[in-house]
Amino acid sequence: MITYEFLQNYWWFIISLLGGLLVFLLFVQGGQSMIHSISKTEDEKKLVVNALGRKWEYTFTTLVTFGGAFFASFPLFYATSFGGAYWVWMLLLFSFVVQAVSYEFQSKPGNVFGPKTYRAFLFFNGIIGTFVLGVAVATFFTGSEFTINKVNLVSFGTPGNVMSGWDNPLHGLEALGNPRNWCLGLAVLFLARTMASLFFVNRLDHDVLHARSRKYTLYNGVPFVVFFLAFLIWTLVSEGYAVNPDTGEVFMEPYKYLNNFIQMPVVLVLFLLGVVAVLWGIIATVVKRSFNKGIWFAGAGTVVAVTMLLLVAGYNNTAYYPSYTSPQSSLTVQNSSSSEFTLTAMSIVSLLVPFVLAYIVYAWRALERKKLKLEDLGKDGHAY
């Protein structure tokens, strides 16, 4: 029999998986942040922009799906975070809006701003979009500053009632004051740039860009590993926000996230396999000049590793969105989810996800049957 608890855990897994897919697809943003460094001539810039332009909608759609699924399955998180830390989310969403505008209008007739302006927007999205998203996810482990009035949960939807309040006037920007958040933000940024370099090696038919992409795989891969290990080790040796399953009380537990890994060995093994796959994709691309499949190893590894990391944040009696100013206001998978009826109805719809993924794979392969070269841009009626 499917229980309410099963549905809550199921939907946290779906959210985690969507988060893993989103981080993988951020290679588009990573490539945008390197338009001016990896490409020197106008033709090279056009080739890079068009290679990324054929993929930007995947990232945008996954971001919207991730946000929509989070809103539907865990509405209290949405109300608390988006309603309180709104400067972070507004900055993130603004960077993605200007990305969409840039791809759609930079090559339109009558463009008075010129391609340089729109490429600057793409660079902005490439840097800010990845870094801010990493910082936001880091608060799942480090905590935020909010208080929830649990009494008002009974009258949710009644005008004048406020469920939660943000305890800092910076409304989310205070997360930038925590160096551990910076570590994950920079790790996501350099991971996206590393994945973009691997994507260029696999996708472009251009010897010069090929050679530069292999170099940039190393240049970005090293800082990614450094910042990711710094965040991971720091998190594993720190206290975490544990939840008493009987009373719902939140308390600080030493080595909480390390304990989660140990107590969930399947999650630990999959996480390590994901990390190894990412490292193999990077190292093999740098060492073997004939190897161009690094994006698939690193991409699959990223999806698995990020998914497992998010499971550690929410499973095993852990507060996935902790408040360090009011620990008992921390959000858990149990106290922030939608009703059993809503989760059941959504679960039926989620059965269509494999078919959607199959279509994405089919469309991706149809567009990637051959590598992209400069001559193809003139034949494409929708070149960016």
TrEMBL record:
The keyword Electron transport applies. The chain crosses the membrane at residues 12-35, 56-78, 84-105, 117-141, 184-204, 216-237, 257-283, 295-315, 341-364. InterPro entries: Cyt-d_oxidase_su2. It is a multi-pass membrane protein. GO terms for molecular function: electron transfer activity; metal ion binding; oxidoreductase activity, acting on diphenols and related substances as donors, oxygen as acceptor. It is found in: Cell membrane. GO terms for biological process: aerobic electron transport chain. Its main location: membrane. GO terms for cellular component: cytochrome complex; plasma membrane. Belongs to the cytochrome ubiquinol oxidase subunit 2 family. This is Cytochrome bd ubiquinol oxidase subunit 2. It comes from Petrimonas mucosa. The gene is cydB.
